[in-house]
Amino acid sequence: MSSFGPQIEVAIARVRADIARLHGELTSNGLVVWTGGNVSGRVPGADLFVIKPSGVDYADLAPENMILCDLDGAVVPETPGSDRSPSSDTAAHAYVYRHMPEVGGVVHTHSTYATAWAARGEEIPCVITAMADEFGGPIPVGRFAIIGDDTIGQGIVEALTGHRSRAVLMQNHGPFTIGKDARDAVKAAVMVEDVARTVHLARQGGKLIPIPQDAIDSLFNRYQNVYGQAPQGALK
After folding, report:
1. Is the pTM here over 0.85, yes or no?
2. 222 Ramachandran zone, left/alpha/beta (phi>0; psi -120 to 50)
3. How do residues 165-203 score in pLDDT, each as one tens digit?
4. Known catalytic residues?
């Protein structure tokens, strides 16, 4: 029997469904191959998150085989999916959730162009307006770390604390992104691959032209606070 109250059970079910669905965005946007990559989402109102099982084909992912974990990365026993091993990056995700309470979603991919920048240990410079909009500056590089414990999570938090970027290139590994929820983190994963490809191609043609910091600040502020439709019921 579950020890969670009805409101938390509803929240868990919603996050399970979201996480299962959002893994399809990784494949449809060409960000992953085979079973690599993962999406996780924090359960609102509880010290819990949901993540995919390790090594399972994307076509076989479903809400009932997503795995519920506590913020130490331990699988919650006797819950759907708890008979499987969670993603090998679970400890990294858990560390981010413990140390960045504003984060509601984490994504990891080995998307081609972003991972190529990570292989060089080189940040992506902010030279296109879409990058200033979305990330507010360059995409930083996190220190090299081995999979298996929360060392990668420590590197993510170190690189992104005090930084406007929602993406980090973990050296020799690949991009991790964060967001206010899992969908937001997936959007950041799509966008970081897009800018990684564009800036790479631009550099093949010649010298990059940096955007002045005041322009970056203005673009970021507008995109984050003005762009798009106001929420329903918001003041016009």
Report:
1. yes
2. alpha
3. 999 999 999 999 999 999 999 999 999 999 999 999 999
4. 108, 110, 133, 173, 227
